[in-house]
Amino acid sequence: MQNPSSSDPGAASLGAAATAIFRQAASAGRDRLNQAELGGLLSSLAIGFEDTAAPATQTAAAELRISLNNTREFGMVLSAGLGGLDAELGESNFSKDRAAVYAAAELTDAGDFLNLFRRTLAYQKLAAAAKRGGAPLPDERLKACFERLLALASCLSPVDPGAPFVLRALELDPVHIGAELVVRRARCEFGAPAASRLGRPIHKIDKLIHPASIGIIGVSASSMNFGRIILRNLMGSGYSKERMTIIRPGEKEIDGVKCVESLKKLDGKLDLLIVAVAASAVYDLVDEIIETGAVESVMLIPGSLGETVKSREPAAALAVRINAAHGKEGGGPIFLGANCLGVVSHPGSYDSWFIPLERLPKPQKKPERNSVMLSQSGAFMITRLSQNPWLDPRYMLALGNQTDLTQGDMLSYFCERPEIETIGIYVEGFKDLDGLDFARAVRKAVVNGKQVVVYKSGKTAPGVGGVMGHTASIAGGPTLFDSVVRHAGAIVAEDFSAFDDLFYIAGALHRKKIGGTRLGAISGAGFEAVGMADSIESDNFCMEMGALEPGTVKRVEEILAAKKLDALVEVRNPIDINPGADDEAHLQITEAFIQDPNIDAVVVGLDPTAPSVRALEESKLRPGYDIKDAKSTVHLMPPIVERNDKPIVGIVDGGKLYDAMAAGLMDQGVCVFRNSGRGTRALVRYCEVRRYAESLRQRQAKI
After folding, report:
1. Residues 574, 565: Cα–Cα separation, whole Å
2. Most CB contacts within 10 A, which of 87, 322, 340, 513?
3. d(CA 390, CA 369)
4. Per-residue pLDDT tens for 654-669?
């Protein structure tokens, strides 16, 4: 999906007209248009403009606000929603996408943005007024307005190096739509384009995650400092000592790894250099790294670079020197960090985290690792993995404060990797315009068939302060972030628990078919079956309980009769199959539901506390009646999940006694949640994004 480019004749003429108006204002020493200039600009956009001093020529069904803003993170963003007095209300008073919608101008077009705008209260008021008055919907007028604004955005974008001026803001509020679209009040600000960072040679990320050689600076020969822990972790994760070099004068070897005096004494070029020295030593060391050309990629472990008032100026100067090196032949080295926990790369056979392995065992829980986790906070990844080892990413990279490599760089690299299916990301903030690179990469990843799950911190003023103190990141507005990144195609989690759930379900169900929105719900606990039905809505999406075909009803009735439950259970959806149902009853009914053409996904409560279910690791009352039994859910469910291409989500709602049951299923690739509300909500959110992703791929195919 693309908006009109500046090479389009219509867009070019709009750009020329706006540039002439901006030049006139600039010659008068202004960066803001006056009323006459605003009238000229809006006239070039074929938008009516009435002086606010004059009475309105028409009664408005709704007052709108339509804006173009040059945001620091995402560049040009188009937004539309409630205007006038309604726009003064905080967006927190409304459900998601009800007050206003936002999209990166580069990732939308007029028709697509109109579809977004239809979610708002403003549009629904217009539609209601049109219906009451017997008038047509104002879609064509709105679409034409959005099209012209997007054309203007493409000509005056901060990412266009040839643009003489950049549009900073064009706000139309209120906008009235009657017989025609008329703006009652407007403001427009512009400025000169700003210099941008050079592109990083992101192909060298391959050297970072698959290094043939690793060097380490900062390893103590006598104590267990961070550098020594990293060395031990590298060896403990299987990286060969022969491919490692320690840069430390006065030593021949440490822990069996050879030492050299300096970077200049290296035998050849290192793929990766891990820097674990004090922050104060980094500045001169980086200059040496750049000057010697001895390294392809660098991992900066030290914290405090740019995170304190005292360090911000020298850290900014350091970033400038690193950026300048990218303009040289070969692009110079890439730098991960600073304030970086490090990298875990299973294909690269190394773990550079400075967390002792005994504190964070990383067992392989899947036959094939197919995900990656990117995070500005290393601790975020540690706690996620510690609580849910079934996330089990192929790669885990801590970005720290993005002195060089950014979130957008990392996602741009991994969105092209064919072995990666799901990408989980923790964001604290973006470098200038990197949010746009990030959104582009999200869209590319989704079009490439991947899923991207994102959590953004810094949603409150105290949270923003914490982000600044942690990785020196500037956190943008949460509503803007949420809207733009969701529109790009990501699954945006509202909290840590939602991130865990969504990243997990995206990995577990990636290869399943999402054919529709009809859910089947099964449980032996009445509250659970009802709870599933009560959890089928998200802010902008709703699943429905599928209507079972007569053949399915008969099949389930036969299963119930065979289990002597037919007198107790009525076949319906959702179905409460009674606590007397055993493992076979649960799973036979599950397969009957999932094979019904009117059902697109199933959530099944596996009822571990029910006496007929083999859910205990070991039963003292009924020896052998446990999860090791061949008729247990742990043995029967994985083949059912494997042979059916629709999603099946199992619910094991119980305490620690049933951890082994849940783990036994998850180890075999069954998607399991520990309560029905979380499992069903995660499935609904996942289905919503998968269906949206399919629509994006279809649109892309038409371009």
Report:
1. 16
2. 340
3. 10
4. 999 999 999 999 999 9
**Residue among 490, 500, 374, 489 at smallest CA distance from 427:** 374
| Amino acid at position 599, single letter | I
On whether the CB atoms of residues 515 and 600 are closer than 8 A, the answer is: yes
In sequence order, what DSSP letters do the residues of 281-305 get, joined into one string?
A: GHHHHHHHHHHHT-EEEEEE----T
DSSP alpha helices (H): ranges in 361-495?
Answer: 378-387, 407-414, 434-447, 461-471, 478-488
Residue 331 backbone class (left: φ over 0; alpha: ψ -120 to 50; beta: rest): left
The tokens for 66 are 């339509």
- The position carrying tokens 């980086």 is 286
DSSP assignment of 319-359, as one string? HHHHHHHTTSTT---EEEESS---EEETTTTEE--SS-GGG
Q: Which two tokens stand for residue 162?
A: 């040839």
List the strands of the sheet with 253-254, edge to edge.
253-254, 257-260, 244-247, 214-217, 270-275, 295-300, 334-337
Residue 91, classed as helix, strand or coil, is helix
Q: Is 140 helix (H, G, I), strand (E, B) or coil?
A: helix
**Which residues make Cβ contacts (< 8 Å) with residue 251, sequence separation at least 6?**
221, 259
Cα-to-chain-centroid distance, residue 464: 19
**What average pLDDT score do residues 460-467 get?**
47
The mean per-residue pLDDT over the stretch 451-475 comes to: 62
Compute the distance between CA of residue 483 and CA of residue 77 in angstroms, rounded to an integer: 10
CA distance 534 to 107: 34
Task: Name the residue among 208, 185, 631 with its Cα closest to residue 414.
Answer: 208
C-alpha span between 465 and 428 (Å, rounded): 11
Residues forming beta bridges with residue 392, ordered by sequence position: none
Half-sphere exposure of 250 (CA within 13 A, CB side): 4
**Which residues 6+ apart lie within 8 Å of 611 measured at CB?**
579
Share of the chain above pLDDT 70, in %: 93
* 298 neighbors 336 (Cβ within 8 angstroms): yes
